[in-house]
Amino acid sequence: MSDTPVQRFYRVQACLYDCTRWMILHGRRRAAAHLKLRPDSSVLEIGCGTGLNFRYLLEYLDPAAGRLTGVDFSAPMLRRAARRVARHRWPNVELIEADAARLALDRQFDAIFFGYSLTMIPDWTGALARADEHLGPRGTLVVLDFGRFRRWGPLGPLMRGWLRLNHVDTSRPYADGVRKQFERVEVHDWLGGYNFIAVGRKGY
Ligand SMILES: C[S@@+](CC[C@H](N)C(=O)[O-])C[C@H]1O[C@@H](n2cnc3c(N)ncnc32)[C@H](O)[C@@H]1O
Asked: Domain spans of the chain?
């Protein structure tokens, strides 16, 4: 199958990603804290990219008991993630190349994280449904992503338009999507709608 526009985008962007995104992608540590990970948790990051969230997730895990799985459909991004894992000698991280909207792994996880990936997935409701299928009983799902810049006045449309050029769609009702699927949901907005963290908990 031919590459999607997002895969083509990351073919070029992969080499620039780590040295540019620190300026705009915030809230990683706060989002990881909402996952309520234990030392023996299994956690899945969907759209893990180059693995910039890994250290915040691994802080909670015992290397011998907890496990982190990163999924992404961009091979160049995953190659960089693999280099990061090797550099840090993280023994409990595995990487899988797969499309979030068609995810079919043979197991469930205690926690699932979308970090700045859901807004780039055209079939985002499908991706959330697949995530739900992969989340075990009493599992937690966290979405960290760009908001709608509600309180940004005239800068709001500019930010949304610029993100759109970068394949990020801020116009869809992501928090409502999480609300539809989970029994208990909290949504935290940051900096006037710059970004949000949506937390869905199963079976509470
Ligand atoms: C903005 S990056 C975020 C990467 C990382 N989570 C972070 O916080 O730095 C978005 C990532 O989502 C991945 N992605 C987008 N759509 C995807 C899909 N349908 N299936 C799997 N990965 C996808 C992209 O390849 C890219 O690596």
From this structure: 5-23+35-122+161-172
Claim: this prediction has a pTM higher than 0.90: yes
Q: Which two tokens stand for residue 6?
A: 């997002």
Residue of the CA atom closest to atom 16 of ligand 1: 121
Burial 117-150 (b: 16+ CB within 10 A, else e): bbbbbeebbebbebbbebbeeebbbbbbbbbbbe
Q: Which residues form the pocket of ligand 1, taking CB atoms under 6 Å from any ligand atom?
A: 6, 10, 21, 25, 47-49, 52-53, 72-74, 77, 99-101, 115-117, 120-121
Task: Judge contact between 69 and 112, C-beta under 8 A.
Answer: no
**What fold is seen in the domain 5-23+35-122+161-172?**
Rossmann fold (3.40.50)
Mean pLDDT of 156-181: 97
